[in-house]
Structures are given as C-alpha cells and as structure tokens.
Amino acid sequence: MALRKVDEQRWEQVVAGERDVVQIDACPVCNGAWFDAGELDLLAGEATQIERALDPESRPSKRMCPRGCALMREHDLPGIIRTPVDHCPVCRGIWLDGHERRKLAKSTTREGQEDPKKRLARRGAIWAAQLLVQLPVEVENPVHRTPWVVITILAVLLSAFGLQLLGVIDLSNCAPGVAGMPSGAMLGDLADGASVRDLCLAPVAASLAQQWATMGAAALTQGSWYTLATHWFLHGGWAHVLGNCYFLYIFGDNVETLFGRLRFALFFVAAAIVGGLAEVLLTQNTAAPIVGASGGIAGVMAAYLWCFPRNKLFQVVLFIQLKLPAWVYLFVWAGFQAVMGLVETRNVGVAWFSHLFGFAFGAAVTPLILAMRRREVARTVRVPA
C-alpha cells in the first residue's frame, strides 16, 4: 500500500511507484499492517513517537518477523492502547493487527482517508436508514475481490422468490394432507408424470415424521427428506428474502474471501441443511413448511465472528447510533435466538432453531477451515531470508 501525505492529519492511498510516498505492507484479510523502522512515527506524526513509547519490558510473541529475522517480541504501549504490539528487535519493524492499526494509524484505512465532512454526512445517512430498517451496517472491512459465490446465492434466492410469486413454485404443495403426509408430489413422483410445479420443496416436520414412521430408512430416498437441501432458497415474503440477502451480503463477502469460493459454498449449504434438520426435529409448529436461508446465513455469521471479531458495526439503539464490535452484536443476536427458541414454542413463525443450530455449526466448523487455510498459506508463502 502506497500512501502520500495530504495535510498534517491525513494521508491518501496512491499508485505504487509515485514519488514522495510511504509504502507499507497491509493484509487484505485481517487489515493488519507491517511498518518498517520509522514508518509508523512518520504516518502517526513525529510528535507522537510511538516507537519510542514502547514499553522496554517485553514478552515472546508467536508471530515471526515478516522479514524473516526471528520471532518478534510483544511490547505494551502504556497510555495509548491496551493491547500489546509485535516488535522485531533486529530490524525494528512493528506489526499492528487490524484493530491496533485503526487506533494508531487510522489514516491508512478507507474510512480515515475520507474527508471528515463527507464521513459525517455518510454517518448521518446511515443513521437515517437504520432508523427505518433497524439493520446493522458494516463499518470497515472491505474485500478486494468479487465475492462470486455470495452473488450467485443472492441471485438464486431472488430468482426462486420470483418463481414463487409467479406460482411456478407453490408452497401450498407442502401443506400437510391425510395422516400428516404432504399434499404435493415428492421427488420420486416425477417419473410418474408429476411436474416441478407439483413438487413439495420445503420440509414439513409432521410429514417427515410420518414418512419415517411408515417407511423407515426408505423414507430417505422415497420420501421428501430431500427438502432439507431445497428449503433454503424459498422464502415467506419480501421482508424475509430481502433481510436474508442483506445479512448474507454484509457478512458473506469477507468470509468467502477468507475461506475460498468452493469451501464457502459447501460451508453455506451444509449450515443450511443442519439448521433445517434441527428445526424439523425441535419445532412444535409441525404443520407449517420450513423455508429460508437463515440456517446457512447464521453459519456465515458465526464464521465472521471467528474471523473478524473486532470489526465494527453501526447499530441504532433508541435513536443513538452505536459503533459496536462484531462480537458484541453477534453474541447478543445468538443469545436472542436461544431465548426465543425456548420461549416462543407455539404458533412459531420464525425458525429459531434453524438460526441457532446453523450458528452452532458455523462456530464448530470455522476453526477447522481456518486451520486448513493456514496450512495452505504455509505451503505457498515463503518468508524472505
């Protein structure tokens, strides 16, 4: 990243190779940055002298110097921030994690490069919109490549909802019939002349339970258990589909960038299936079709919590716009799902258990995926000698 000074308080990003610029190495995933000796003081202002403010006492760090010198040392910055920073005693470079960088070198972030008046106007517009929709807004976590899987899933969700509006996909096919069986055709009936318009594509807990009781293990291939893999692209209304699309976009683009496209797609579908299965097994509203991508999106939110816990979200509470760390918002959200799943047990219109178990699946699987990603990076990245 190449930066050029605009005035005493601001730097702007420019094309690498221009004259009179400072170049720093920034991670596009975690927003962390590496500062060679003297660069951090130059960006923060010579009067700050952050490098001289490092506490002489240090502790061993688990992070290797990007220049390959040795393991770095953790130093406190008393009176400036509470978290330690990593300092190389050989080349005297400093590594800042994303949250540390925003505090000490905010001018190197997209938000910090904006004109203060434009930033204030943008916050005002966000506040006005949030008063109406009460949705969180991601503050600073840009991605540097197109999230094609997220865009594809959004297109699938909106296209499927369009087919619902046109009557091509009919949820009434999944209304429970005699003895709890679905009134619509099942997948095996296509060979007997049934059309896609006649299919039941959403699971109904009573129907699946009846099929299992009467057909046993054969219900997995001859019944409508396939609906656990199709219910996630169906929705109950405009607010349902647009809300799910919004949450998928603000959290999914970052997770897809970190996981990789194929791994993210499999992760999303698996979380959706786990969430749908949990709702089928635990809901008391057994006669209503279960629809929505909420289980998969909840899994993505859990992955975001693991990967970017300190990234900030705007949320309006009682007309006040708060800037919350992602971990605060997502922990509150998960707790709300758990409480509502236990309290609202009759005439349920929301798949609380799908949300909760999709989130739990994401929280359990994400550390495994991150370990895989670390091994992949270790095989491809070479530290300079």
Automatic annotation (TrEMBL):
Coiled-coil positions: none
Cellular component aspect of the GO annotation: membrane
One GO MF term attached to the UniProt entry: serine-type endopeptidase activity
Intracellular or extracellular location(s): Membrane
Boundaries of every Peptidase S54 rhomboid domain copy: 223-370
UniProt-listed Enzyme Commission number(s): 3.4.21.105
Key words, A-Z: Hydrolase, Membrane, Protease, Transmembrane, Transmembrane helix
Membrane-protein topology: Multi-pass membrane protein
Pfam families on file: Rhomboid, Zn_ribbon_TFIIB
GO-annotated biological processes: proteolysis
Residues annotated as transmembrane: 148-169, 232-252, 264-282, 288-306, 313-332, 352-372
PANTHER family named among the record's database cross-references: RHOMBOID PROTEASE (PTHR43731), RHOMBOID-LIKE PROTEIN 10, CHLOROPLASTIC (PTHR43731:SF26)
Name of the featured protein: Rhomboid protease GluP
Organism: Enhygromyxa salina
